[in-house]
Amino acid sequence: MIPWLPREHMFPDVSRALTEPNGLLAAGGDLSPQRILTAYQLGIFPWTSPDEPLLWWSPDPRMVLFPDQIRITRSLAKTLRNAAYEVRLDSAFDEVMLACANARREGQNGTWISDEMREAYGTLHRMGFAHSVETWIDGQLAGGLYGMAIGKAFYGESMFARVRDASKIALAHLGAHLKTRSFGIIDCQMETAHLASMGALPISRRDFTARLDVLCVQGEAPACWPMDAIDSYFRNKAIKGSA
Fold first, then answer.
1. Strand 130-137 vs strand 140-150: parallel, antiparallel, or unpaired?
2. Containing H/E element for 146?
């Protein structure tokens, strides 16, 4: 059995999470900004399915990316150098969340990105914690991702692509952007082949939460996250892709 959360912004210790399903920790509560921010700093995130109560998770192991270890394949390196795209930060946050909600995913019926989720993360975006990274091609939103930045930790939530490699372009630029700002980790939550292909790897929950204890108290105020285009980064670098 898992506990039902009280009104206060409190969570059980993550060590109490179930092993099956992996990481299920608690149910109930709300999506208030303070509760969500508290959850992320403890290594917990909300995720649910339609017609289910709000569920909170902390899986073990945890899938993560390190900003300086993102894998760029040769084909992606060529795209990053030559393709006619633009990458922007926070210019279309609501559009990115809606596109992620509507994206079709293998083995999933419906989406966990409900209207309530979009409203909650929209509030966090206006507070300076939730961010989008967008790939634009010919003036159209072609792909992107959104997530949370707390201190020097970035928590990836979801991504989508309407054009081949558009989400990978956004992720590669996010990694480069975070590296220049001394971020230590990108949380990927659960393992996927897409993220593994770009260098994501599993670490223990204990290791993950220990890193958060250090990273989440570092860094600038959330409002310092820049909102501008970063499309020139890879075109100005002689990057080489791996096999």
1. antiparallel
2. strand 140-150
What is the signed CA dihedral for 43, 46, 47, 53, rounded to 10 degrees? 140
The fold of the 4-59 domain, in CATH, is Alpha-Beta Plaits (3.30.70)
Contact between residue 141 and residue 95 where contact means Cβ atoms under 8 Å apart: yes
Q: What would the pLDDT profile of 41-55 be if each residue is shown by its tens digit? A: 999 999 987 778 999
Instruction: Kindly write down the DSSP assignment for every residue of 39-85, as one continuous string.
Output: HHHTT-EE---TTS--EEE--SSEEEE-GGG---BHHHHHHHHHS--
Q: How do the domains of the chain map onto residue ranges?
A: 4-59, 63-224
> What's the chain's average pLDDT?
89
Give 56's pLDDT tier (boundaries 50, 70, 90).
very high
CATH number among 3.30.360.10, 3.40.630.70, 2.60.120.430, 3.30.300.30, domain 63-224: 3.40.630.70
CA separation, residue 40 to residues 80, 89, 169, 227, 233 (Å): 31, 21, 25, 23, 29
What's this model's pTM, rounded to 2 decimal places?
0.92
